[in-house]
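Sat 14:20. Reprocessing the chain from the morning session after the first attempt stalled halfway. Input below, unchanged.
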Amino acid sequence: MNTHISTELKEVMEAVHYRPAVSIILPFEAKISLKTEVAHALKVAADKAGTEVMSNYPGELGRIVMQKITNIISGLNYDTGKKGIAVYVSPVFEKVLYLDVPAEAKIIIDESFEIRDLLYSNQQQYKYLALVLSSGESKLFLCNNTIIEKIAGSKAENVELPENDLPERVANFSTPGDRKEIQLEKFIRHVDQTLEAALNSNPFPVFVMGVERVTGHFRQITKHSNAVIDYINGSCEDLSISQLREKLAPAVSVWKSKQQKELLFQLEEAAGKKRLAAGIADVWKEALHQKGRLLVVEKNYLHPAQHSDVEDRITELSEPHNSFSSIRDAVDDVIEKVLQNGGDVEFVDDGALKKYRRIALIRYF
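Finished this time. Tokens:
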């Protein structure tokens, strides 16, 4: 597994921690008729953030941050076609990210920026390829939770079939049916070459769809069986995009479930080798010492905490607390530490990590 972090998000993660760090995350589907509504929502969010910032940081730092937020919002590009926006501002840093995934409205003021929702949303896209086959046509789609986009396709009648390909079989076919089988085999070899080119730029799992006779030929011929997650049998060449998504849904659901089971198996294996930390206190300590190879956390697990007298330990947040020693969510900070030190982060369903107290870290050693 390899957690993909965009250059922009990495820049946010590496920003110097400096209070107040303001994170504003909002939906941003700015269709022409709704631009005024989006602008109003942004202004409301900015005003809400401003009220909180100025109540806790009434001096020069608060004014600097609010001026930055005002300038950013006034200069936003509403024509990006993106679905969400994340605004990050501190007295020493500012950044705007336009997001490909829908965003849940959120305003957070802390000593570090909020990246968890962005990371989770990106991972839940579950990108994959869907190859739809028939004896006369192929279609290749790039898919995620929200988009199915055709990226390649060909028709058998347009594929040049070399005369010297499989010469003995071509010369000795005895019926029209034999010839059709040979031509189908040649066409599928061409499709497999097209798939190879697509996998070079889109290295995602593949679902192969089509009638069993055609998918059976593909299964025997393909050089990319390791990339194929499942074969979905049935006539699919005339399906609409919505019908295609519906046809794929059960197989994609099984695939997601298998991924989660694989993560749980890795945790069990690491525990047997004494390379597993479980629970936020132990995970925090190991992450701080740069030992985290893979962090697995329940998607909605939050844990407010506070720093202790020992640098690598945190304690439960108690009242009254000092805002400068408190941690709004220790889970977010652990995620950031693991990623910054080259580890990976994966999310699982709530309740899946009950035996590990909702969060677990596989150590490098």
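Residues 241-272 form the longest helix (32 residues).
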